[in-house]
Amino acid sequence: MKYIFINIWRVMQRELHMMFARPLYLFASVGVMLLSTFFFLTLMRGGAAENMPVAVVDLDQTSISRRLIHEMQATPSVDIQLVTNSYPEAREAMQQGKIYGIFVIREGFYSDLVAFKRPQLDFYVTNAYTVGGNTAYKQLLTMANLTSGAFQREVLRKKGLTDDVIMHRIQPLAIEGHMVANPWGNYSIYLVSTILPGILGLICLMLTIFAIGFELKARTSHAWLRAAGGNYTVAMIGKLIPYTLIYLILGIGCHLILYRFAGFPVYGSKGRLMFGLLLFILAMEALGITMIGLLPTLRDALSIGALYSMLGFSLSGFTYPQMAMLPPVKALSYLEPLRHYYLIYVNEALMAAPAINSLPNALALTLFMLAALCVAPRLHRALVYWNYPLK
Amino acid sequence: MSEYKYPIVKSFVTELQRIFRDPGVVVIFIVATLAYPLIYKALYWNEQINDVPVAVVDLSNSPQSREFLHRWNASPDIKLTHSCTSMAEAEHLLRDQKVHGIIYFPRDFAKQLADPLGQAHISLYCDMSSFLYMKAIYLSCNQVMLESMRNIQIDRYEQMGMDKEFAWSLVQDAPYHETALFTPTGGYGSFLIPAVLVLILHQTLLFGICMLGGTAREENEESYTFTSLIGRAGACFLTYYGLAAILLGFFPRLFGIPHIGAIGDILLLIVPYLLAIIFFSLCVSVFIRNRESGLVLLISTSLIFLFMAGISWPKEMIPQAWRWVAACIPYTWGAHAFIHVNSMGATLSQVTREFIALWVLTGAYGVMACVLFYIRKEREALRQKKEC
């Protein structure tokens, strides 16, 4: 028994030595994670998209259309970048990526308005950029309502009604939108909460494959097993302890930065959320072992690992919901640990659901760890016999 | 190798052989490049999300609210799946993710509507775990609102003693007509896949070139001469030009995602884009020691480049400092140029800015690669001298 601990310690010492001898290990884990955290936390100024540049095409060129444009320019949520009397010019500006929407005041707007002939307003938004286009759409809708409301108000005022009475006639029905758990509609909170843990998982998976696979590639696996007294389990435990510690510290750090330092809201249990993150990290590490076990050529395992973990971002369903996916793709999404972490996150941070709701996902993450045990015989053979190609 | 008259031709042929004799590089350059777009198309197959399940809490229980719900249910975006008697019950459903939104009619809904001075309220609760749920619920709500609102307004004006004709023209004073340009379905795939296609080219080239550099270094075959630099760039360009043409020219047509740009413009645009990536990657590859380490170190740049370019998160909302960094990445310019040409029908003259920027990056990274290769050559020479 004593020898086992001594051997584990020997393997760990060997591993730490290797880790510090090459900048790659620490850079690919700590360095990449620090950089990604800094990047994603500083990327989205304010977190909510607003003031997308739009253009107004004034084909009417009358005093009322100019007054209307003035009124729109004074509205804080609208950013009019271009006022022109040519639609092609506005369309070209959109094709060059300068604006996201076009608001058109047709020719004869004023004369139609005076004659009660219902002049029509047109607006165009780009769909080639989703968030930009949607935000511009909201702005243009505000502008159209502004125009429409302003006109009704004028007519009713002339009829001698007070503003208070007018308000309720123009707006007999009001919709109150509530964005559950993210009342600011903050895109940063929504995106970063899944993407940063996802990147950490990606690091764990790739680096675990690299750490084990490199022993095969450099033909050092015999020295590694020797340090472990020929025992596969001891060799694995000794090797993985330093990495696991780094991953877990990064996980705790990531959780603290998001939910303490950056102040992202958690409506449920922070403890359970962090526990979910740590389970996810271990699941990704285990998945790395499974991959190098199934494909003991470093390059193959890394290519598959890269594909698998990059797809996790799409399959987790945090941008494009799982309910919209094709049935086989939907089934595939359960094989992604990130999907399970995302569901735990939704339960804990957003929905404040009871622990029982997250239990199936926590169990699924545990299953990934068990899968790593199944490849042990195959990986052990590869370490001993080097029966796979080098590159 | 005396059959080649010029050393540059020899270097070019050697590099081509190294690409096609290395199964790892072939997998990244060719298999991954062609397989990734298919996978992403399968992922985002349904452009729209339809029938988002929504719970209804109708405390007013009036013909008016039922009329509303009836119209609402006709919208393709949402589906009223549960009818609840209390808000607590609906919140439970939301919490268990059985529904992704709640529509709530307060008790006085009908009364407020009937009162000519009243304002009726409807509350919407949206699940924010995906922004697309919110979009679907708000969109359907807007459509229903616009229609119903007009009818109520006309009723009220008539009650005030206006004649019907006048009331009608009053509420219709400035009707508006909205058009979504370029991608009529407004689907998620139509928006994301063009950006992903451009990213796939960028990242597979980056990883592949790092693998080539790392392998050569492992096998002590790396030569850091100007000739080998040009030879490698030429070999990669030749291998990739056809792939890029398939990905950017043919796949959008095959997939039925928007492709209103001129194919000739796209083929021209590919030239500086590929060259800029190749020289950028050659600069990076100088720092890569093993054939696999590039992939481990650089895999997360795929996400960073995608977001930094300002495609999904608008570029206007990105801090200036990050926009400068983004300007140094070929992907940023390539993605915008391709989206403008392919999805928005811009001509090459309309993307001159991006086109020139890509040539500038090609030049800058080309010079930088020469310098880095030179420094590396000197160091190698020094090392060999020491060893002797």
Q: Strand tally of chain A, please? A: 5
**What amount of the residues of chain A lies in strands?**
5-15%
Structural class per helix/strand content of chain A? alpha/beta
Helix-strand pattern of chain A:
HHEHEHEHEHHEHHHHHHHHH
Could you give a quick summary of the protein structure above?
The complex is a heterodimer of chains A (391) and B (388). Chain A has 16 helices and 5 strands.
Give an overview in words.
With 391 residues, chain A is an alpha/beta fold. Chain A is 68% helix and 8% strand. Chain A has 2 domains: 243 residues, no CATH class; 118 residues, abc type-2 transporter like domain (abc type-2 transporter like fold), CATH 3.40.1710. In chain A, strands 2-1-3-4 form a 4-stranded mixed β-sheet, with helices on both faces. The two termini of chain A are 38 Å apart. Helix content of chain B is 66%, strand content 9%. Chain B has 15 helices and 5 strands.
Write the layout of secondary structure elements.
The complex is a heterodimer of chains A (391) and B (388).
Chain A: H1 2-21, H2 23-43, E1 53-58, H3 63-74, E2 79-84, H4 87-95, E3 101-105, H5 109-114, E4 121-126, H6 130-158, H7 163-170, E5 173-180, H8 187-217, H9 221-227, H10 232-261, H11 270-294, H12 298-315, H13 327-333, H14 337-350, H15 355-374, H16 376-385
Parallel strand pairs in A: 1-2, 1-3
Antiparallel strand pairs in A: 3-4
Helix pairs in contact in A: 1-10, 2-8, 2-10, 6-7, 8-10, 8-11, 8-12, 8-14, 10-11, 11-12, 11-14, 11-15, 11-16, 14-15
Chain B: H1 7-21, H2 23-43, E1 52-58, H3 63-74, E2 78-84, H4 87-95, E3 101-105, H5 109-114, E4 120-127, H6 131-159, H7 164-171, E5 176-181, H8 188-218, H9 226-255, H10 263-285, H11 293-298, H12 301-308, H13 320-327, H14 330-343, H15 352-387
Parallel strand pairs in B: 1-2, 1-3
Antiparallel strand pairs in B: 3-4
